[in-house]
Amino acid sequence: MQINDNFFIDSPKHPIVLGKISKVYGVKGWLKVISFTEKICNIFNYQPWFIYLFHSWRSFYLENWRYHDKNLIVKIKSIKDRDAATVLINRKINIDISQLPVLKNEAYYWKDLIGCKVLSINGGLIGKVINLIETGANDVLIVKYMMKDLFNVKECLIPFIEDEVIKKVDIINRFISVDWDYAC
Questions:
Q1: Shared domain check, 132 and 73
Q2: Contact present, 32 and 21 (Cβ < 8 Å)
């Protein structure tokens, strides 16, 4: 399976989730897709898609895609009918991390933030980023506290609002400096 002119991928060595197949659309094997990419149609910039199915990775190439009522629907080359498509319902769409373009000018992916230490602006350790969520208004860091006995709270949600809450992101040294109350 050729990804680009430089290398071939049979299965993802470092899979990263870009979306999810939600349900079948129609009788000809089309599928509704939920994209986790910043612009929802960017999910189509990456092929093949890898889906873990029947205890192994399977690669899929798109035949076609389109918008339908603010949703994305896709036609996968190897899927010819509704029955074959049902096997893919609720499966995550992965690519290999090597398929992502290299970013420039201190840009980063969400995956780069996971595992970063979160420090208060005065240098105190708050915790470590374990995940991120998108709320519509802004992204949110889910931070696992590193402190003990803080009202039995194990996680903290910190809005990812640059300059106001997020003061510095240092991907190389793996920390994020925030102006945020410890008690969240």
A1: no
A2: yes
Task: Please tell me what DSSP assigns to residue 183.
Answer: T
CATH code for the domain of 132: 2.30.30.240
Q: Where are the alpha helices (DSSP H) in 78-161?
A: 82-86, 110-113
Count of other CB atoms within 10 angstroms of residue 74:
25
State the alpha helices, DSSP H only, in 67-135.
82-86, 110-113
CB atoms inside a 10 Å sphere around CB 150: 15
Q: Give the pLDDT confidence score for residue 116 in this predicted structure.
A: 96
Segments forming the whole domain that contains residue 41: 9-99
Distance CA 154, CA 164 (A): 24
Split the chain (184 residues) into runs of 10 and give each run's mean pLDDT: 45 92 95 91 94 93 93 94 95 93 85 93 90 87 77 82 94 93 58
Within 10 angstroms of residue 5's Cβ, the number of other Cβ atoms is 5
Residues 21 and 95 reside in one and the same domain: yes
Q: Quick count: other Cβ atoms within 10 Å of Cβ 16? A: 19
Same domain, 44 and 66: yes
**Number of domains composing the chain:** 2
Q: Which of 175, 140, 144, 145 is nearest to 161 (CA)?
A: 140
